[in-house]
Amino acid sequence: MDILQELSQSVLNLNSGQSLPAMLQRMLTQKSRELNALVEVNRALARSFDRDPLFARIAAAAKTILGVDGVVLRLTRDDAPRQPADGNGKRRTAKDPDGESVSHLVATLNRPITIKNLAQARALSPACRELMTGLGWRSMAGAPLSAGGAPIGALVVCAREEREFHPDEIDFIAALADQAAIAAEKSAACEAAREKSAAAEKLAAELEQAHRAKAKFISAVSHELRTPLQVIVGSADLLKDGVVGDSAEEQAHFLGAIAHNAEALDAMIGSVLAVARSDAKETRLELSTVDVGEVMCDVLRYAARVNRNQLEFSWDVQEGLPPITTDVRKLEEILKHLIGNACKFTPEGSIDIRVRDLAKRRRLEFTVADSGIGVAPDDLDKIFDEFYQAGPARGAGMGLGLTIVKKYLDLMRGEISVASRPGRGATFTFTLPYAID
Q1: 3-state secondary structure of 252
Q2: What pLDDT, on the 0 to 100 scale, is given for residue 96?
Q3: 180 with 132: CB under 8 angstroms?
Q4: What is the pTM of this model?
Q5: What is the pLDDT of residue 285?
Q6: How many Å apart are CA 227 and CA 193, to the nearest integer?
């Protein structure tokens, strides 16, 4: 039993000996009913964001506790009443042709009002008085719904018999109006959040579609560029090697330059294709189990080919490494991109490549460290962005190599970090699991 009900029952028990006036009994019982009704409405408010059921509960509480015949809950932003204005469930509005109504008056005054005799209420327009009395209403009381001090609607109760609403009843109506205002604001906030969420989902879908369209276009163009480029590379190699006839030393030099730059352009196109496939969610893993030493042998040959500055390479691959189950081709590409970057931005000095077993984490750790120009602190969190080129690196390549590294590692359950100081080189460290689940 509610504590207020217990208090009321105690009062009734005491009154059996006529120790308290009957009027006080009725007042306490009525107050107990009002407070219990407010508590129930408040509980409903805490559980729900749906305005209409909450308004229905508030209207039912007002009708039951006050013994009135009709209740109107109206929002100024939504002209349709949330509860019928008459007691028969018919949706009829106490609204005159000029747009005035009892609820409009309450909201406009922004304070509780009570009218004992509607037929003689000068605060209402003649048309509104006629409509109200024509509907059978004789008395009414109302309180505004307010948000931030501004009226957003009104709660109006109507009676078919002339009656006077006492101050305690007006307070109860005002308390219900406050709860209705909370329900309205919660519902509006929830609806706004839903609309924003729906708009965000729509925008995300449109962006995804645009990404796919862009990726397909880039892929198509890149493939068209690659075919004649490969013909150029092949033809240059044939001419340089004398397959189609002897060539002078100077011609061989220029043919070598053609082949080298064509290969660089082919690598750029490959990078663009890789990013385009990733953006279009078309990148797939091709898993196989391999010894890390085999991977490093292929990477070693690549390093020798791109080492144009005659840098000193150091290779430190831990013995007894476990085999790794991963996408071997992508692992090789990751290492080649990191080594290619190190060669590009190290005019002189050394490059160290290390592989370690992190047995406790069941991961392998790969490190590529150089003694080159380094990366500024402000650029460290941007170097994996598409087309981003940091400091002195601007203009060198397309800025896609590290983007591909990051995208591939994300796909392969990898992790990567970078440490660098300008003029002191950069160290890229990434880890991969022994096996991708």
Answers
A1: helix
A2: 37
A3: no
A4: 0.46
A5: 83
A6: 51
